[in-house]
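hiii, so i know i said id send this last week but things got crazy w the move. better late than never?? heres the sequnce for the chain we talked about at the cafe, plus the structure i predicted for it. fair warning i was half asleep when i ran it
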Amino acid sequence: MAQSANVRVRPKETENEINEKGFFVRQKNHFTTPFGNGEGKLPVEAGRYRLIWAKGCHWSNRASIVRELLGLEDVISINLVGRGKHEQDLGWEFVFDENSTDPVLGVQFLSELYANGDPEYKGRATVPAIVDVTTKKVVNNDYVWLTNYLEKEFAPFHKEGAPDLYPAELREEIDRYNDYLFDNVNNGVYKAMFAQSIEAYNDAYNHLYAAFDEIEERLETRRFLFGDYVTDADIRLFVTLARFDTYYFKNLGPLRNRIVDFKNIWGYARDLYEIPAFKNNTYLRDLAKANGNKETIFIDYNTRFWDQIDYEGLWSEPQNRKEKSSDPENKFKRN
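okay and structure toks below
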């Protein structure tokens, strides 16, 4: 098919998001208009929006998990993007669809939808992206708050008995902890992987493992981050944990610990993986798949073994996290 003039070459993080000291400084989200009622907000309507996400991207994976947990499948449509082979990196593409074209939006590349939303936008076309299907424009890519919008503003469309992932009495505390997770864990792995100076790398690495140590201690007496029930914060942590031993490790340098080496964190991660919405939206084998060169003498671990490891079996091994809960048969507080 003919390539649209709106297709953009993907800017590189290591060229555009590194400061003078070699630290990775993630680009700011561009489409941040909130959902809600009133002037200047995106209207909350069933059938109007489409969530675009990618298997490898944990920022978008958490939105896909929340969408399923809350029963919003018939309210917000969804599609996956991946990477196709081109002479230049053209960013996220609808590679899983016929003719690499989204059947609802009629485009091949996510950057086209970004250009529809703002023709002057020069940054990376990122996921998650919420697209207004009536205009074919990206209207929100604010992963910081997107799951919270689904939890609060889309509450009228939640399924009966949907979990309360963002309890009103805990929101301020959850928000603070989410900020901590972002800086030290979720974005922390990228700060280490994209670091262009040893100073920047060591800073990110040390903060990452200090956070893991804090989380390991926190989970010694709690089933989940905020006690007996899964909250928004657990989803944000889980998506990074799912990628750590399967993919991130190869770009992080010498590891002090793998996730499986943290007794509480590893049991906690498997406890969450038992929940269908987590398992359905976590493509462990896809995350581990490598396209390395098998002709060299030394071949990286994932290239050698990704198709021989039973990832689902490993993540489904029994754990005894129930013992830490006063309501062991329930993982959610229900609305």
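btw The chain has two domains: 13-157, 168-324. thought thatd interest u
miss u guys!!
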